Amino acid sequence: LGVGKDASTWMWNESDNNYTWWHNMGFGAQNVQATVGGDGKLHVLGVGKDASTWMWNESDNNYTWWHNMGFGAQNVQATVGGDGKLHVLGVGKDASTWMWNESDNNYTWWHNMGFGARQPLATNGSYFSDLSSLTDDQWDTYSGDNTRFDPNTWDNGVDERSKTPDSIKQVYTDLSVAIFGSRHQMNTGYMYDKSYHDGFGTWHAGFDLEAAVGTSIKTVVGGTIAWTSTDATTGAFIGVNGDDGKQWVYGHMQSIQFAQGARIDAGKVIGVVGSQPGAQHFHLEVETGLSYGKTNGADPDQNHLRNVTVSPLQAFWQWQNKNGKTTTQQPVNNNGAASQSSDAGLKFISRWEGFRSNIYNDPLNATIGFGHKIHDGKINGSEPAEFRNGITESRALELLKDDIAWAEQAVRNTVKVLLTQNQFDALVSFTFNNGSGGLAEMIGLTRLNSGDYASVSSKLNLYVYDNNGNVVDGLVNRRRDEANLFDNGVYG
């Protein structure tokens, strides 16, 4: 079952015996799903671009014959219940919930379940599955204020990071990475940001992420451009009707590059950060359905925001699970730094250290593998038999993993903001080469612990000299690659 870029739906069946033979199902959809019902037949459920719901059944024996279920939905799910019958659950554009049962025998007969929902109806992945029990209100609270992620000077010393679960912190980092390619500081939270309300008298409808003018912005979820607007003060805004059934609003951009109705895929640049009053930032907002809730970025009525918007973290988490994503990041500690190097980070360091299978003096100590010190002083015959006979590269990597433990601890102790895995790996490589004092000095030259991630790469490039003040080409290359790893996640 496929949904085309033009929202057309197509089906190919195993029995067709021809891979270029697709059945056009004659239905324009934003999403579709197929399941086997209690009757043992295939049932295809579709949600149209206009939020209408449609069902096709294998027994219909006609690919263009769809039953209009008479229900406007932002999300639908079909499953077989304990009675062996097919049950379809829908969440309407107004967040109402509805159920249709196979036994009802009438496609337009829906039971209103009397419950307003924004939760995902199903998750196919295992992306931070520990968060699946959170209610809408809990998501809203965790997303509510930047003090839970990145306390700022205007927050009067309020630091609530200890109240935020590590997995929530990582979801924010992953969202920021999806937009910018690296983690950016949160300047304003969603719906409960007190300092924002004190300053403007309204509650914020999304997130503000710190970003310099000209920073590229990528779409989180692919979709269709629903609307655009420009303002001389606040810049350009674009609403994208996402493939997840929600509208994603990208704001404070320099200009509009896409026409209404155009398709944009996830991960594509939708614009760049524009100039606006105050701290330069980007605004992200997510509507509960495929229509704009007229928030204008903020609203004095929290209930209005609660009805028409959803926490960007919750929306991102739902989308990751809907796409079958799994949690790949290393765990994070209370300071927000990854707790250990990744395998890719270990191999990154190993390439710079260089592998030697036999014992050698480097320059004063007996050494082997990727610079592993066996003992102080030169080779004297007291080396363990394992080393005297030489070691494999895999064994050398095991030794290197132990050797970099102090560098990992130094990064955890020194960096006070959340790092993505690639950022953590880059700083461990730098620290292993320059020492914990070098790390502390370098971090002191940046504003990293205030959330200025962009300042790191330029300071890394200062550490390219030997003890005599001469530039070392190898260090120039290593710093370049560490900066590329920190900024862009390129392990080489």
Provide structural commentary.
The protein has 492 residues and is an alpha+beta fold. Strands 11, 13, 15, 16, 17, 18, 20 and 22 form an eight-stranded antiparallel sheet that branches. Helix 2 crosses helix 5. The longest helix has 25 residues. The relative contact order is 0.08.
Structure in a nutshell:
The chain is of the alpha+beta class and 492 residues long. It has helices at residues 136-142, 166-180, 194-200, 302-308, 312-322, 343-353, 385-388, 393-403, 405-414, 421-445, 456-460, 473-488; strands at 2-3, 8-11, 23-36, 42-48, 53-57, 67-68, 73-80, 86-92, 97-101, 111-112, 186-188, 203-204, 207-210, 216-218, 223-231, 235-242, 247-253, 263-264, 269-272, 281-287, 298-299, 309-310, 356-361, 366-369, 372-375. Strands 11, 13, 15, 16, 17, 18, 20 and 22 form an 8-stranded antiparallel sheet that branches.
Count of distinct strands: 25
Structural class: alpha+beta
In terms of per-residue confidence, which ranges show pLDDT below 50 for 5 or more consecutive residues?
A: 118-123, 328-337
Helix content: 25-40%
Based on CA atoms alone, the radius of gyration comes out at 27 Å
Beta fraction = 25-35%
Shape: globular
Q: What integer is the average pLDDT? A: 83
Q: Give the N-terminus to C-terminus distance in angstroms.
A: 37 Å
Specify the biggest β-sheet: 8 strands, antiparallel
- Structure annotation, total helices: 12
